[in-house]
Amino acid sequence: MTPEERAIFEKRRRGRNIALLLVLVGLSVLFYFIGVARLIRA
Predict the structure, then answer these.
(1) pLDDT tens across 15-41, in order?
(2) How far apart are CA 37 and CA 21, in angstroms?
(3) How far apart are CA 6 and CA 2, in angstroms?
(4) Predicted TM-score (pTM) of this structure
(5) How far is CA 27 from CA 9, 15, 31, in A?
(6) CA gap 2, 7 in Å, rounded
(7) Using CA atoms in the order 9, 12, 14, 20, what is the torsion angle rounded to 10 degrees?
(8) CB neighbour list of residue 13: distance below 8 Å, 6 or more residues apart
């Protein structure tokens, strides 16, 4: 694997990792607000 190919591979992997992080944070926030809403309604 050439250095150029490796750089492209690492950039793609970093992009996927950031996307996965955003999805996980979004789900965490969503579940938090659902939990708060259920507590308030109860």
Answers:
(1) 999 999 999 999 999 999 999 999 999
(2) 24
(3) 6
(4) 0.77
(5) 27, 19, 6
(6) 9
(7) -140
(8) none
